[in-house]
Each structure stands twice: as C-alpha cells, then as structure tokens.
Specification:
The structure is a homodimer. With about 350 residues, the first copy, chain A, is an alpha/beta fold. Helices cover about 45% and strands about 20% of the residues of chain A.
Chain lengths: ~350, ~350
DNA sequence: CGCACAATTGAGAGTTATCAATTGCGGTGG
DNA sequence: CCACCGCAATTGATAACTCTCAATTGTGCG
C-alpha cells in the first residue's frame, strides 16, 4: 500500500483529495500548513507528496526547496495542486524539482492518474537502479564477449612475463580487466616465501577488492606470461557499479566466491598432506586454464610457481610430482606436466 | 559535460534550441522525426531528452511510451516542448512519465532552467540511491547501537553452548545478527578435523556471504557460549540492501575485509611455524574479544577450540602454550590463559 | 661446446602429528 | 568430608612428514 501526504490549508479541498485517494486505497496523511507538512514528510517518508502552493507558515515552494536539501527525501515526488495558474508559478514549481504541477479545477481522474504515474515512475526507477533488486534474476551469459567490447576502448597495457602489475600496500587507482595472458596474485611472508592466493586469465577482473574496501592493495600481482590488461579508472569503476546493478552484483558475487574458495583452501593448508594439496592444485589449474579446444591439457609452469600455489617448497613439490609420475597419474615431458589420470587425483581429495 | 537530445521536426525551432543549449555548453544531438529520435536515444543515452509532441513517423507520446519500457532509459528525463497547450495534452504527457511540459512560446531562460533543474534532479538522485557513490563518505559511527535497535524487534533466537546455528550445504533463509554471545564458523576436512574460519560476537553479521552469492552455506556455525541472535528474513535483507546504499556498502566492505584477512591467514597456515600461528591466534582473540572495561584480558577457551583456530592438534597446541608459559609470555590458571607479555607475541610475528 | 639456469636427487635435521598414558579438577553420592 | 567418576588438560615416546642445504643432472641457447 502506497502512502501519500497531503498538504493543504483549505479543509474542504483537503477532504476532497483525501476522499479520492482513500477510495483508491492509498494510505493518506494530512497536514494543514507548510511547517507541519515539512515535518510530517521528514517523519513519515510518504511515497508521494501532494501540496498546495499557498500555505500558512511555509509555502509549497519552500517545502520543496527544503526537501531537496535532504538526501533521503529527494526520491519522493512532490506534486503541486493549486489554483495558481500563472505560467511563472508553474515554471518556478517545476524548476524547483516538482514532479508535476496540476492546476485547479482538476478532475478526479486527472489527480489519480498523476499520482499513479509518479508512484509508478519511482517504482520503475527503483527496480532499475537499486542494487540487488535483481540478485536472483541476473544472468551473466556471454559476459566475456560483452565486457571485452566494453573495455577494448580503454587504456590497454601490455605486461611481459614477471612484470609487476600492482604491489601490496599501494593505493588502487584502477580496476584491471584481463584481456589475455595469465596473472598471479601473491603474498609474501616474513621469511620471503610466496603464496599464490589468486590466479587470473582472460575475462577476469583484478584489484576490485581494494577498490571496494577503499583501502590499499593487500596482495601483489605479477604476469606469469605476456598479458594484455585493460585499465578502468577508479572513478569509472564506481560509476559503472553505481549505475548498473547487474555489475554491482557481479562484483559482490566475485567477492563472496573468493571468500568461500579461500576458506576451503585454508582447511587444506592447515590439515591436508602435501600430496593432497598438490593434487588439488593440479586440478585447480586444469579447471582454470584448460582450453576446451584441445583434447590434451598440458601444464607448462615452473616448479617454484607450482610450489607457491601448493604452499610448499620447490623440492617437496618435485618429490610429490615424481611420486605422481611413478604412479602414472601424470607424465612429465621436458618439465611440462600432463595429467593422465584425473580420477585418481580427485579420489585423493575424497 | 551533459548531453541533450533534441527531437523536433521544424528546423527553425530546432536550431533555436540547439543554439541556446550549445551556448550553455551542453553536448547537443538532434533528431528530425520520432523514429530517429527514439533510435538516437537508445544509442546515445543522453542525459536529457527535449521533444516536440507532434512529430512525423512517431509522436512524442509514442517515444516516451517506448522509452519507459526500457529499463536503462527510465532514468533519462524527457521534457516536452510544444505548441500544444491543451490541458488534455499536458496531462497526458505528464501521466506518461514526462519530467516537464513546456508550452510555446517560452523564453530562453525558461528552457535553460527547466533543463538544468532536471539534470540536477537526476544527479542528486544518483548520488543518493546509487550504490557506492558514497563509498568514501559513508561512516559507520555508532553502528552497533543503531543496528541493535533496528533488529531488536525481529525474531530473536537464543542458542545454548555448542548449538548449531546453520550448517554447511543448507540454503540460507536468514541473515543473522549477533546481539550477544560468541559464535564460531568452521569447516571440516575429510579426516574430520575442524578449522575455525570465523568468529563472531555482539554486533557482527553472519550468513551474508551465502545470501549475497545466492548459494548454499559454505561453513557451519556453532555457538561457543550462550548467545542471542536476531534473524532477519532473506527478503528483508535484500530490501534493506537495495534501499540503503550505506548498508550495501557495509556488506561489501565486510566481504572485502574477510577476503584480505583470509589471504593473510592462508600465508600463515602455509609457511609459518606453529609457534607463530598460536601467537597470532592469541593476539587475534584478544583483539576480537577484549572488553575494554577490565584491565586484564583472560581467555577462557578450551584447548580443542584454540587448536582449531590455530590449525593444529590439541596436543601440539598445548605444548606451544607450555612453552609460552615457561617463557613467561602467558600465565595459565585453571586452564584460563592470561597474556602477560603482548609485545613478545607481536615480536614473534615480526 | 659450454654457460646459465631449472629440475631433480640425496641426506639429514626439524617440526608436528599420533597414540598412549598420566594428571588435574569439578561434581556427585555415600 | 571423602572416594570416585568423567572429562579436559597435560606429558611422553615415537613416527611421519616436510624442510633445508648441498650436490648432481638436464635443458635451451648462443
């Protein structure tokens, strides 16, 4: 049920409006002068305000002007309903931000249509702009294609292998969108050991956590092969997120997914054997980087990288790989790893 | 620079409008008939549309009606600028959702004021409703007090020690807000070992990750002491987040912070000695649960819990605690732990 | 061919987990 | 008031696992 606040000094006119609106099933509140009207608006937050222009204590224009200074009231439409038919008055009302200006005499249907139109407009606007209103509806089909074309016109940087993209502790100025290549995000502990906490390839965003948290980067990112990355300026990112609820939802979901994935990894790191962790890393890499067009999936990654992903040392990792090799779970050719028996790897993790 | 699309068939009138608006530094686009106008609007997404009513191929009302069916166009204000001065026409235009209706003849200043007023209105609205527009401004002072009063009227459940609150794999129906007590979130690995991945006390939210991701819970939560928790139904949560950008920002920040914290914990779990992990856990617990009103901070927590927090076994944890005890870093009285030398703990972590 | 660097292997040390045994403590019933 | 039960905390001995440091082998490339 929508609510309407009526501000009208003349009791006869007021009663007529009340009657019409109540018949149409609106929740109706009334105020008899400008001051009362403003106060009730602030208190009750109606869905719409109908106000006369000529009012004791504070006129309709004054009410509107005051309301426009309150951020939480801006979205409430105000319709002037008055005997002032001078063009000058009408223009002034509209320029102050009125949603409509109806001159007397008006018919019941004119009033109802105007009220309904404004409420509907707000409702449509809300559904469109409000974050998460569509959280369950939003689909991300063909996301990559759409985003690629969107960001191709932006600044595109090329990074060589081992080049840093951003560094822990710095302030974020851009959102990064990977067009091609592979990038790792890692953290270093006090002994100088790296743990890879994220991997990105074509179609992934990077750096949004720091932007959304409004804080410094908490990880460092580096290209692990030659990569092309589109840079979206911070302001544009916020603009994008602000105006497109589907994009906001996208990032919220990414954050939530990251969270779950990290929690699962924490359990692994805490309690699982190296064997399990390596198995899990291999499966993760296959899942992340497998190109579906080839039938074979061959991993060309140096041992230190792989160790950092598994949270161990190069030597321990190599021993585990040798084990897998003797067990015919993987084959190693010139350092390149091919998964021969995926099911055995999966079985290890139960 | 704001952009305006002008739809007007009469070239003389059109040129006059273009001149006025260009002088006022607007980016101006023009269309000479209704079809062209609609197409340009869809393509260019101007900040405002000025349209005549009587147009070839598709009249102004038709354009507006079509635009109102497109979610992305709803927020663009359309002003009718026409010689039709019939009340009926004016009402029809406004009822369709026009932002303003200006009748000829009009002055330059009337036009400019109307345009400016509408653009300003959209801008203000955007700043208010749009998510993250205020990301840098939003403060959360007295958050707990405000939220407590907000949620006190909701369903409040009491949980006894060791009672489950929600379980991994189930579907989220509520957002949980902790009024009092302490709760842990944990995950179990295949061998049945638990790792505590989150701790909550009064003023914390739980369960939002699953809600925002629109997926099942990925952790299990259990009260570690008697607790009171307000349940906010799923729909209300979405309503809240949709209508209050500051609340949306709050949850986004929570997600982002969790992410960073988990990444840091992962590095610890992967490479740091048990000693360091236990030191870090003790400091974390002090930070999380310290009541500022007492001068002493005493931890009453069973050894299994503490082990799950540190990612180790009960026995190993106890040995580490004994070491800390002999080194006079902590004291243990009837199982309760008091931190004697916080600086030594911090020094361990470098 | 030889250099530079990555990958692998080896041996031993260090850390943590496991399993079993013991101690400590609060509560209960005689 | 005291013995005893049940459970948590602690200690002990040993095994398992992973790391460290050093040495060796393999590979790509000029």
């Amino acid at each position: 049920m929508y609510s309407v606040l009526i501000i009208e000094a003349d009791s006869e006119k007021r009663e007529r409006i009340v009657t019409i609106l109540e018949l149409a099933s609106y929740q109706v509140w009334v105020a008899c002068d400008g001051k009362e009207g403003y106060e009730k608006a602030m208190e009750l937050h109606p869905d719409l305000i109908l106000s006369d222009v000529n009012l004791p204590t504070l006129d309709g224009f004054g009410i509107l002007k005051l309301l426009m200074t309150r951020p939480e009231m801006i979205s409430i439409p105000l319709i002037f309903l008055t005997g002032n038919v001078e063009r000058e008055d009408i223009r002034r009302g509209m320029e102050l931000g009125a949603a409509d200006y109806i001159t007397e005499p008006y018919t019941e249907s004119e009033l109802l249509n105007a009220v309904e139109a404004q409420i509907e407009k707000v409702e449509r606007l809300k559904n469109h702009t409000s974050l998460l209103a569509n959280v369950n509806r939003t689909q991300f089909n063909n996301r990559k294609e759409k985003l690629d074309t969107l960001f191709k016109h932006k600044i595109v940087n090329k990074y060589k292998k081992n080049q840093y993209i951003f560094t822990e502790g710095n302030h974020p100025l851009y959102l990064f969108y990977v067009l091609s290549g592979k990038i790792k995000a890692f953290k270093t502990n006090e002994d100088g050991k790296d743990l890879t906490v994220g991997l990105y390839n074509a179609g992934d965003f990077m750096g949004y956590t720091a932007l959304l948290e409004d804080d410094k980067y908490s990880v460092t990112t580096m290209a692990i092969e030659a990569s092309e990355i589109a840079l979206i300026p911070r302001e544009e990112f916020f603009e994008l997120v602000s105006n497109h609820s589907s994009i906001a939802i996208l990032f919220i979901r990414l954050l939530a997914k990251n969270n779950n994935h990290k929690a699962a990894q924490m359990v692994q790191l805490a309690y699982d054997s190296l064997r399990k962790r390596v198995a899990s890393t291999l499966l993760f890499l296959k899942d992340k980087f497998d190109k579906q067009d080839k039938d074979k999936f061959i991993l060309d990654i140096n041992r230190t990288e792989l160790a950092n992903l598994s949270g161990t040392t190069k030597e321990s990792l190599i021993r585990t790989l040798s084990d897998f090799h003797t067990e015919k779970i993987i084959s190693i050719d010139h350092g390149k790893i091919e998964i021969l028996d995926e099911s055995k790897l999966k079985y290890m993790l139960n």
